[in-house]
Amino acid sequence: MEDRRLLERERHQIEQILQLDNEELQVEEVDSLPHSDDDRDAINGHGGTEAFAEFTFNSSLTSLHTYLGEVEDSHHRMAFLDGGAILNLPVIFYVSGVVLFPEATLPLRVIQSNFIAAIERVLTHFNTPNTIGVVHVSLDSDNERLHFANIGTTAEIWQFRRLEDGSLNVLARGKQRFRLRRRWIDVEGVPCGEVQIIQEDLPLRTPRDAFGELTPRSTVQHHSLSCALASYTSCSRSFTSGDEEDNSASISEESFARELSLRERKIHQAAIDSRESCSDEVITGSEAKHQRAMSHLNDSDSVGSVHSAHEKENGKSVPDIGKSSTSAWESSERKELKRCRRNSSFTLMHGVSKAFWPYWVYSMYDSYCLAEKAAAMWKQIVGVPNMDGFVKNPDILVFYIASKIPVSESTRQELLEIDGISYRLRREIELLKSIDIIQCKSCKTVIAQRSDMLVMSSDGPLSAYVNPHGYVHEIMTLYRANGLALRGRAETEYSWFPGYAWTISICATCETQLGWLFTATNRNLKPRSFWGIRSSQLADPTC
């Protein structure tokens, strides 16, 4: 029943495409930004299709890649391989301009006869049916050599079409990451390779029983500092007044604070402030504050000032430690000070047991907390209405965002190579925070703002498409763009977006081809026009 409903939906979508193709072609000439004031008012700044008051384009048509023609389903499905499994792939596609992630779609147009024969073998392969390898390749700008990535993705051919000229149109879907162990070219000139499947980890959740029963780490540190201050104060009073005082009767924070001098209270309050700031800073930052407080106390001048302030409050006269004196009493006093500091708890505080980290530290690596944060940021940028299903599955969300995030291909390859759900989510959150402007990679000209992003495909604001010559492009769709010029006439043939004509667009500053302008061929389509920018020509947002 589910397959029948899927076929009926696809048949209905194809009928919509044919209706769009049969309508009269009305391509508008575009001199600058092609949007009216009404169109601008329809955007709320988040870039999603929901941002349009009158968004009439069916974005699900784009994800079907209907420009490839009618395709047929492959009969075999590849099972997931165990992590660590080693296998030989009969064909590996080394592609530039695109990085394939698990669950992402990759369209291919296979033209060369040796690759066509290899795909035919893949479709009937027994051990790994319908499975190919996809590895990103880039041109090293320093020595102009090809750089092959070590981490790639297996892809399953789930739809294909044989054309009259013998070529193949293929739709593949990413499955599992692999590490390329060895690569070679077979006798027919087809790239092959030995790969090892990467074992993916499971989402990490904060161990709820890891805290709550033990004393918090920050409390332990505060108690140690308080004890250290009490120990030092007791020692200071003992040798200045000549009387032994028992300070062990009151160890509470209030009673301890009342016995401190003005100078000691300031230092004590600094320690408390350092503890409270732990919730907003990393632990190392809090430790640095404690160390500064301790070093301040351990400084000989500070010790003298604390001692002097204490004695003045008690109305006692003290020898002037700052003056040069060689009296035996002063020498013994200084030795007593040093001995007291060595025996106090200041030196022991560094060795305090860490007990446990507070909850906010755990949440920094909790996959579900990170997924919730990343989903909220993604929704704000793209305008996706509901991300609850993804938040409950961080292992799916992490690859979903990685395959759609509008960054350069080198940064996307970096995301593919990160091991660990939490670590990849943390990097994605960092990138989502940095996405503010979109720039040309060559000349750094600002093309658009983050709020100009537009979702024209159900796959997201960034998707892969293949042209008639077999070149795969990942493009990001924008509602408006600046600093671009058009080259050539508008064409409707092989349009990636049904009902839209495309025109080549270049950077007006460096004349690099950045992408295409898509204009509606009938007046019923909204938006009237939009831009498609190649991700390979985008500058890294963190640069």
TrEMBL record:
GO terms for cellular component: Cul4A-RING E3 ubiquitin ligase complex; cytoplasm; nucleus. GO terms for biological process: protein ubiquitination. One of its GO terms (molecular function) is metal ion binding. Its main location: cytoplasm. Keywords: Cytoplasm, Metal-binding, Nucleus, Ubl conjugation pathway, Zinc. CDD domains: CRBN_C_like. It comes from the Eukaryota. Residues 435-542 form the CULT domain. SUPFAM superfamilies: PUA domain-like. Residues 89-436 form the Lon N-terminal domain. PROSITE patterns: CULT (PS51788), LON_N (PS51787). It is found in: Cytoplasm; Nucleus. InterPro entries: CULT, Lon_prtase_N, Lon_prtase_N_sf, PUA-like_sf, Yippee/Mis18/Cereblon. Gene3D superfamilies: 1.20.58.1480, LON domain-like, Peptide methionine sulfoxide reductase. Residues 289-329 are annotated as: Disordered. Pathway: Protein modification; protein ubiquitination. Substrate recognition component of a DCX (DDB1-CUL4-X-box) E3 protein ligase complex that mediates the ubiquitination and subsequent proteasomal degradation of target proteins. Has an essential role in mediating growth by negatively regulating insulin signaling. It also has a role in maintaining presynaptic function in the neuromuscular junction synapses of third-instar larvae. Belongs to the CRBN family. Belongs to the 4-toluene sulfonate uptake permease (TSUP) (TC 2.A.102) family. Likely a component of a DCX (DDB1-CUL4-X-box) protein ligase complex. May interact with pic/DDB1. This is Protein cereblon. It comes from Cucurbita moschata.
